[in-house]
Amino acid sequence: MTMDGTITKEAIFKPENIVYKKTSLMTDNILSYCPGCGHGTAHRLIMEVIDEMGLESETIGIAPVGCSVLAYEFMNVDMQQAAHGRAPALATAIKRLMPNKTVFAYQGDGDLAAIGTAETIHACNRGEHFTTFFINNGIYGMTGGQMAPTTLPGMKSSTSPYGRDLNSMGHPLKMTELVAQLPGTYYVTRQAVHTPAAVRKAKKAIRKAIEIQHMKVGLSFVEIVSNCNSGWKMAPVQSNHWMEENMFPFYPLGDIKVDGKLIEKK
Amino acid sequence: MEKELRLMKGNEAFAEAVIRAGADGYFGYPITPQSEVMEYLMAEKPELKTGMVVLQAESETASINMLYGGAGCGKKVLTSSSSPGISLMQEGMSYLAGAELPCLIMNAARGGPGLGTIQPGQADYFQSVKGGGHGDYRIIVIAPASVQEMYDSAKTGFDLAFKYRTPVLVLTDGATGQMMEKVYIGKQHPRLTEEEIKEQYPWATTGKSGGRERNIITSLDLDAYKHEQHNHKLQKKYKIIEENEVVYEEINLEDADYAIVAYGTTSRICQKTMQIAREKGIKLGIFRLISLWPFPKKEIRELSKKVKGILCVEMSAGQMVEDVQLNSVDGTHIEHYGRMGGVVPSPVEIFEVFENNYIKG
Hints:
The complex is a heterodimer.
Chain A: H1 9-13, H2 39-52, E1 59-63, H3 71-74, E2 78-81, H4 87-97, E3 102-108, H5 109-115, H6 117-126, E4 131-136, E5 139-140, E6 146-147, H7 166-169, H8 175-180, E7 185-192, H9 196-215, E8 219-225, H10 229-232, H11 236-250, E9 254-258, E10 261-262
Parallel strand pairs in A: 1-2, 1-3, 3-4, 4-8, 7-8
Antiparallel strand pairs in A: 5-6, 7-9, 9-10
Helix pairs in contact in A: 2-9, 5-6
Chain B: E1 4-9, H1 10-20, E2 25-28, H2 36-44, H3 46-49, E3 53-56, H4 60-72, E4 77-81, H5 83-98, E5 103-109, H6 125-129, E6 140-142, H7 147-164, E7 167-173, H8 174-178, E8 180-185, H9 194-200, E9 216-217, H10 224-244, E10 248-251, E11 258-263, H11 264-279, E12 284-289, E13 291-293, H12 297-306, E14 309-314, H13 320-327, E15 334-338, H14 347-360
Parallel strand pairs in B: 2-3, 2-4, 4-5, 5-7, 6-7, 11-12, 11-14, 14-15
Antiparallel strand pairs in B: 1-8, 6-13, 10-12
Helix pairs in contact in B: 1-2, 1-7, 4-5, 11-14
């Protein structure tokens, strides 16, 4: 500290003063995500948990098709890039062939809840011993903001320009509630990463999901409700407010299934 | 004696062979006429013998993507199906080829198009050798013609798949899959250990251990110029395969005036046709394709120079015949005879077609 009470740069760099350090399991590649997007935070939390649990050399991750198609550029562990929607099929085979590895599928809403619905449901129903991270932002981000299976009623997208009409376009799919009903899932939770408090909760959930994977008792499934400011045509802060006001009432945060048992709604 | 003799269906022989070849995992979906493969594996419980995983998947789409996941880890994985199911797998084969992943796929083909029929067919030739999925890629295609060759194709197929990091397709049909013949069973090859996989396949995603950089299995590159380089690499590999892996069988071609070109079940039927011809003093021989891709280009060209005529026989409207035409010298008298929709031609009808085209005409 200097005479006038300010902290010098040298002091900040001292190890005892470091309050946050990027995990070495995130590469130095520049994230391809839009500023304000939740993907980067979700990536970091998963990698931090893998790092803290000492699983770097035992982990195989799967990137989907969608905004996170390049997740392998950022996650510094062994990675496979799957065909659209097929991450659970890859994860199933990898985990069955190498039962002692930590295997996770990282998927968006179009990947997991539209084109990959069958693979998602069957992997959950078989009770595969891997972990699914499901990023739900209610839109197809990478292809330019088309309607997703999870797009809210009335929500505008490039393929529902007048808002999602439930009569002609069907209802948003609550995939997480759906898979919680299956006997093969052991831990099912819905989280968010838009505030420091939410980030802390999400990280705990991610850790729990990986721990459950090691127990080999069933599939662990973590949904992260996220924003898509580009697709939603909003500023990042505005999109987070919109998410709280519109996404959370429809996709309420919290555990849905714990220890293989559905949480009773009060 | 290491070898034992058994009476088995082609599908069963293939299933036994993959266990013996040291396969790590089978992922499949039932479809006639090849469901015996998974039935046999489930009954044999290879997980207790060798640790091999057998899983009934929710679809052919899931099966082929399970192969992608397993192959990406350097595991010996396979699936089997029949024509409509193989169509569903084409996207996955393109990804496997693009990501350079080794695996074994068996197609006990049936008559098409569409749901078609459950009787044998050879109308999947185009789909198999021209690349049924998207993009510039090839896969090695082997066509067995007996139950013994069905058995042998498992180890040969895995060896080629890992030698070149490519999917290998065993293209048979409902007849060879379902028929019973005697078959010599070979010895049990051990599955590779994790350490052996890490050593032999350093590209595999086995977990980032030993201080190495992370491994990535992908077919994606958003940089067009880099992706073109990847394509060049693939094409170079395909050229090497074309130069080294052509397999065929010549039957009575030394003195032949005429030749039949055929593969698989049809090539067996044509041997009887050849016998009928020879009994009548007509010097007919058979050029039997074993590797459909790589195609024996040079050999077919030499054959076309030597004989007065070539009859292509296949259970299709005429698919393999196009490759024979393409590789024969100009002016070669090439005819095609095919039955479709699951109908198997008889030796006598093939002889009549041959006689009408080349002898009586």
